[in-house]
Amino acid sequence: MCKILAELCDDTPQVKDKLVKYSVHDWSEETETHKAMASHYLLEHIDKGEFAQSLAEALSSKSIELSVPEYINKAVMWACGGDLDG
Question: Which 8-state DSSP code applies to residue 28?
Fold first, then answer.
């Protein structure tokens, strides 16, 4: 997601550089606090509508893979009438 945001970023070079660093960072070993701080930073530098459209386009073209927590996956499946057990 950070890669897409970095591509859209027209802020200062410092913001773009931070987004690029976030896009290659291994977040699997980070604490929830550090992830939350990074998320807060991203939300301060984002046009949510433009980002959502770019993310949807990237997901539909399968150019990126997105992992979400299981509870979010189940909520989306439920909202779409999907199979919650599958």
Answer: G
Reading the chain (86 residues) residue by residue, the pLDDT tens digits are: 777 877 887 767 888 888 888 888 888 888 889 888 888 888 887 788 888 888 888 888 876 777 778 888 888 888 888 777 75
Tokens for 10? 């027209």
Question: For residues 42 and 2, is the Cβ–Cβ distance under 8 A?
Answer: yes
Taking the C-alpha atoms of residue 71 and residue 34, their distance in angstroms, rounded to an integer, is 21
Identify residue 32 by its one-letter amino acid code. E
The continuous run of DSSP H or E covering 31 comes out as none
DSSP secondary structure of 4-27: HHHHH--S-HHHHHHHHHHHHS-G
pLDDT at residue 86, rounded to an integer = 58
Phi, psi of 24 (to 5 degrees): -105, 0
N residues, the chain: 86
